[in-house]
Amino acid sequence: MPRVHSAPAPAVSGVDGERLVAPSPRAFPARRRRRRGGWTPYALLTPALIVLAALSAWPLVQLVVMSFQEFGRAQVFGRPAEFIGAGNYIAVLTDPEFWRVLSRSLAFAAVCVVLTMVLGVLVALLMKRLGTALRTLVSVGLLLAWAMPPLSATIVWGWIFDTQYGVLNHILSRWFGLPFEGHSWLLAPESFFLVATVIIVWGAVPFVAFTVYAGLTQVPDEVMEAAQLDGAGAAKRFLLVVMPYLRPLLTIVTILQVIWDLRVFTQIYSLQSIGGIADQTNTLGVYIYRVSLGSGDFGVGGAISVLVVLLLVALSAFYVRRTVKEETL
Q1: Would the pTM count as exceeding 0.90?
Q2: Considering its fold, how many domains does the chain have in total?
């Protein structure tokens, strides 16, 4: 067979006339593989993976096992649990109450996410236009709202919407002459979720505002000035110039808000304890709590929890895939 000779690397003249040989292109992928390879990243991630497995993976495995068992209060005190297969899942999926709670939770989360994102973006745009002193003042206010525990915030807002001593009823009835004297905001499901939406959006807007504001600072001023010189108004500059920079950030923040609002518990349960009707205002988090600890049916509660986990995993998978795609660009 004829011997095939590889082409020699091209020679390049140096500064002193010395002949230099350019490196072969095949050397770069090997060097990149050597730089990215090795066991060091896995060794650094091992402690975090062990803690994550101990705190999340093992309880999740126990939850899945419990969802296939008849597990009640008797099993809590030592009676062996009986394996019933998919009986708990069939009971959950054929229960109309589960579907009502699921649809109610999805609608509630959708309203909260839309309001949170819109208000968060508007606050971020406001912070971008404010001076240093006013921006600092707004940032401190947002941090205080964000740092307040959900239970404390719910108690404070509960006093604002209180039937007899609430400041909102006083303002609406005394200042505006509206018939809100002694009005109960938590008895009707519509007004109950109005109060819950206010509390949840109030606590979630700071995170969105700070995140979007950080993204706005990365938009080049030269691009904005060029668009303004071309005659683009404020709306067009935001839609055509700013949005392409913020779209990956907004996608990730929106997915996080959907996950958080779907599993909200503290605000709904606290408002129900103040005066709301539980049967008409349950969301997924509270419904799981009442089925498991309230009724003592931990097997059915575990099945509902597994279904919610699968829903959140689907959303998280989209979030992780989006994040990896952004990192590889």
Answers
A1: no
A2: 1
Q: CB-based contacts of 259: which residues, under 8 Å, 6+ apart?
A: 312, 315, 316, 319
Question: Angle at which helices 150-160 and 189-216 pack, to 10 degrees?
Answer: 130
Distance CA 189, CA 166 (A): 19
Q: In this predicted model, what pLDDT tens digit does every residue of 176-188 receive, in sequence order?
A: 888 888 888 988 8
Structural domain span for residue 213: 69-328
Residue 248 lies in a domain: yes
Q: How far is CA 175 from the centre of its chain?
A: 39
In tens, the pLDDT along 62-74 reads 889 998 988 888 8
- Quickly count: other Cβ atoms within 10 Å of residue 314's Cβ: 10
Task: Find how far residue 124's CA is from the centre of its chain.
Answer: 18
d(CA 137, CA 123): 13
User: In angstroms, rounded to a whole number, what is the distance separating the alpha carbons of residues 308 and 261?
Assistant: 12
